[in-house]
Amino acid sequence: MRAVRASLTIPGTVHAAESFWYDVARWPDWVDGLARVLERSEQWPRPGAVVVWESGPAGRGRVTERVLDQAPLEGLTVQVEDDSIRGRQRVAFSPVDEQRTEVALTLEYELKRRSPLTQVVDLLFIRGAVERSLRTTLARFAAELRPTQPPGVG
Predict the structure, then answer these.
(1) What is the rounded distance in angstroms from the CA atom of residue 122 to the CA atom of residue 118?
(2) Which of 33, 63, 100, 125 is deepest in the core (most CB within 10 A)?
(3) What are the chain's domains?
(4) Measured distance CA(137)–CA(153) in Å, rounded
(5) Is the pLDDT confidence value at 118 over 70?
(6) In this structure, how many other beta carbons lie within 10 angstroms of the beta carbon of residue 37?
């Protein structure tokens, strides 16, 4: 599996960041490429819970995320699958200090369709696009989270 990682330090506590991340209703505001959430298990974000979402026309299509592990105030690992990839995505929350949190997003993935050119295509095109998408998601997450912060934070 290939791994791509992006991280960003944001204003606010781990608890605030984690609570906002788990609010699936807000995902269309900040998850790159997500057009609408189609399904969400009641037990989200506990292990076994599922979220199914759909991208816009030029995106990934239908994406399924199934929770593998969730540690309060630490992070969440999901199994992720769409038409092109399958893998694991991890979001981790780490306190930087009392008013800032590092949010790290890692996607380990494998391409479903294999050919003699798969590695080259991945290296030249896919990996960079995945990394940009993770960075965009984190930047949008930070921008959306900021208005929810109490005065004096950020």
Answers:
(1) 6
(2) 63
(3) 2-148 (3.30.530.20)
(4) 21
(5) no
(6) 16
